[in-house]
Specification:
The complex is a heterodimer of chains A (297) and B (374).
Chain A: H1 10-52, H2 56-59, H3 75-106, H4 111-124, H5 128-143, H6 148-172, H7 176-184, H8 189-217, H9 244-253, H10 257-296
Helix pairs in contact in A: 1-10, 3-4, 3-6, 3-8, 3-9, 4-6, 5-6, 6-8, 7-8, 8-10, 9-10
Chain B: H1 2-6, H2 14-27, H3 30-69, H4 72-75, E1 79-80, E2 84-87, E3 97-98, E4 101-102, E5 104-107, E6 110-111, H5 114-145, H6 148-163, H7 166-193, H8 199-204, E7 205-210, E8 213-218, H9 226-250, H10 254-262, H11 267-277, H12 279-295, H13 298-303, H14 321-328, H15 335-363, H16 368-373
Antiparallel strand pairs in B: 1-6, 2-5, 3-4, 7-8
The chains are: A mainly alpha (297), B mainly alpha (374).
Chain lengths: 297, 374
């Protein structure tokens, strides 16, 4: 029997063992490399942002170079981004949530469900600059000037597929027994969805929505040819509209040191928002998944 | 994703369905159900409509350019938005002079997208070159090496990289990475490679035509070039490739791994087996990263140098499709210019749709939440 099992030569085996150990070390190194890039990027943003952060940023308008008090603050940009995101959400959230409900609750095996899911996934991969051009053609050309509505619509376009897919995933995490119990009690399907399934998933659906909001709040490219941006404080979305990201872009690519510093601080505000929302999403999903496994077990 | 739609938790049994229906009929409350079905279907249809509108509007807006340039648009490399007066040459190649003045003719604007297509392709490939080994290595670490308590925070941190807005990477690239490359990175590469013949000319010189003469000179290193762009893109696509390949590797059947180990495979041999077992899905992950890199706009606009040219050296400034749009669209000089830019956007869109469709076909079976979140 022994002659059938040919033992590999020891040298070869040792070579393989060393190679394996090396590759393992390499994997650890690569991970360390990615993490150090993350640390490098965030630390730099953090340090610079904190250094230039001040109350003036929230309370003052930008002041042109050369005038007293320059560069001022980012009040208009912060308000502008707030309004743009609110407008985009007003369109994007209802559409997205409804589509999500359809995908999760009504679409089992249907043609519409499968293709909507596919299209939504593909849409999340569409370059945001292309969406900006769509906004330009649909809203800026007919209205004759760059305006906030166009920017908000471009942002809503980015938001809808994300909200739809996260809502779907969150509703799927609601245990099926909830639905069965509700129907056993004689509720209609609409009632089951609105009064049982959605409330059970509210927390996580909202976190998913917040994540989409964080994503669009950080978008710059779709606003370049739609809202365009302005140094003034404006509340009228039919005019060129300021936004934090575009202002940060203009300042950081501009020649003035003061404005670049302001850009760092603006960036920090954005990153902080994104970080908090991500952390929140992670905790809710974790919580939901644990609940689900408890309910299933 | 067929396996999702097949076993949806929302699908009620047939008997339950008919029971609800009978309940609805008995109480005469058709409305609430019908309304929700109607509205939610509207939401779903609007998503499909969005894609149709996007393709339709862009094609319509790009039509003047498509009509004027045809396929030539993809294969010519002249991008000149403004009219140009050039001296007329006679048959002998001499400048024609009439009444003591040089006769000029006006050349219409020309648009050819080859340089930006080249820029997008090369910067995305550079990004993949940086990102693939790092991502696959990290994915293997998370699945096969890391203890459980470590895997979760590392995953979170890597995914957080994906959530940082593109403009933040742009700022970091512009103020940190580019100056570093300019002063240390690129001179170091130059010193290290100077002993290889030909490399110096390839990487660090450019030829320019000035006053009819061709001169070769040293490439001015600014740090804002194709290489820097590729690096930034690489960092930006790390998280998506890592997250998806981690999920893909996780879904390799346990028996497959145990089988290799039982046959006496070392850790690396069995890891390689895992990689080759899920190679289709890993390829899909790479495609998604590629699509992301090709469409990335703000960061690349800030670091690539914004010069429309095809230069063989990665240390020369370049332009990608997305950065061209960011730079020129808002100030387009004519209708044709705008149409040409829209055609570039259309090419970018079609490309990213193709990449995404192929990728998602390949990644089917991995965790769909990650795919959706990215």
């Amino acid at each position: 029997m022994e002659h059938l099992v040919r033992q590999p030569r020891p040298v070869y085996r040792r070579y393989q063992a060393i190679k394996s150990a090396l590759m393992k070390v390499l994997c650890v190194l690569f991970t360390a490399c990615i993490l150090s890039v993350l640390v490098l990027v965030t630390l730099y943003l953090l340090i610079n942002g904190v250094r230039y952060l001040s109350w003036n940023i929230f309370t003052e308008l930008p002041i042109p170079q050369g005038m007293e008090g320059a560069p001022g603050g980012l009040k208009n940009a912060l308000i502008g981004t707030g309004i743009l995101v609110a407008l985009a959400s007003a369109v994007g959230i209802p559409l997205g949530v409804l589509a999500g409900i359809h995908l999760s609750e009504y679409s089992a095996g249907s043609w519409l469900g499968t293709s909507t899911r596919f299209v939504a996934d593909v849409l999340t991969g569409v370059p945001s600059i292309v969406v900006g051009i769509l906004g330009y053609e649909l809203f800026v050309v007919p209205m004759g000037n760059f305006n906030g509505y166009a920017g908000a619509c471009a942002l809503a376009f980015i938001m809808v597929p994300i909200v739809a897919r996260t809502t779907e995933e969150m509703l799927r995490l609601v245990p099926n027994s909830y639905r069965e119990a509700s129907i056993a009690l004689g509720a209609t399907k609409a009632r089951t969805i609105l009064h049982v399934v959605l409330p059970a998933a509210t927390g996580s659906v909202i976190t998913g929505i917040m994540l989409a909001i964080a994503r669009i709040a950080g978008e710059t490219a779709p606003l370049l040819f739609t809202a365009l941006g302005t140094r003034l404080l404006t509340l009228d979305p039919s005019q060129p509209f300021p936004s934090l990201t575009v202002q940060v872009f203009n300042y950081s690519t501009g020649p003035y040191k003061d404005q670049q510093n302001l850009a760092w601080a603006g960036m920090l505000i954005l990153i902080a928002l994104v970080f908090v929302l991500n952390l929140a999403l992670r905790f809710t999903v974790h919580h939901m998944q644990r609940n689900r496994s408890v309910a299933a077990g | 994703m067929p396996e999702l739609s097949g076993a949806s938790p929302g699908s009620f049994g047939v008997s339950a369905k008919s029971r609800i229906r009978s309940l609805v009929r008995r109480h005469g409350v058709v409305s609430s159900d019908a309304i929700l079905v109607g509205f939610s279907r509207l939401g779903a249809l609007s998503i499909i409509a969005m894609l149709v509108v996007l393709l339709g509007v862009l094609t319509f807006a790009a039509w003047p350019s498509i009509e004027t340039f045809g396929w030539k648009f993809l294969f010519t490399s002249q991008w000149r938005p403004n009219e140009l007066s050039v001296p007329v040459h006679d048959a002998a190649g001499k400048v024609v002079i009439e009444n003591g003045e040089v006769v000029t003719e006006t050349m219409p604007p020309v648009f050819g997208a080859l340089p930006v297509i080249y820029g997008t392709a090369v910067s995305s490939l550079l990004a993949l070159l940086f990102a693939i080994p790092l991502s696959f290595g990290t994915a293997l670490f998370l699945v096969r090496v890391s203890p459980r308590w470590l895997a979760s925070p590392v995953s979170f941190l890597v995914e957080f990289l994906a959530a940082i807005p593109s403009i933040a990477y742009g700022m970091w690239g512009l103020f940190v990475l580019a100056p570093f490359l300019q002063h240390y990175g690129e001179p170091a590469i130059r010193t290290c490679t100077s002993w290889i013949p030909g490399v110096e000319t390839w990487l660090f010189t450019e030829t320019a035509t000035r006053a009819g003469q061709t001169v070769t000179r040293t490439l001015p290193l600014t740090g804002r070039d194709m290489f820097c762009g590729g690096l930034i893109l690489g960092i930006m696509i790390l998280p998506i490739i890592t997250a998806i390949s981690r999920d893909v590797l996780k879904s390799v059947p346990r028996a497959q791994i145990e089988g290799t180990l039982a046959l006496g495979a070392t850790w690396w041999q069995s890891a390689r087996e895992m990689l080759s077992y899920s190679r289709a899905a890993l390829f899909g992950a790479v495609m998604l990263g590629l699509a992301r890199a090709a469409g990335e706009t703000m960061a690349i606009t800030m670091v690539i140098g914004n010069k429309i040219q095809i230069h063989p050296s990665p240390f020369a400034p370049a332009q990608t499709m997305a950065s061209l749009l960011a730079n020129e669209f808002a100030e387009a000089s004519s209708e044709l210019h705008r149409a040409a830019l829209t055609e570039v956007a259309l090419i970018l869109l079609v490309m990213s749709l193709l990449f995404n469709i192929i990728a998602r076909r390949l990644v089917v079976g991995s965790d769909s939440r990650t795919a959706a979140a990215h």
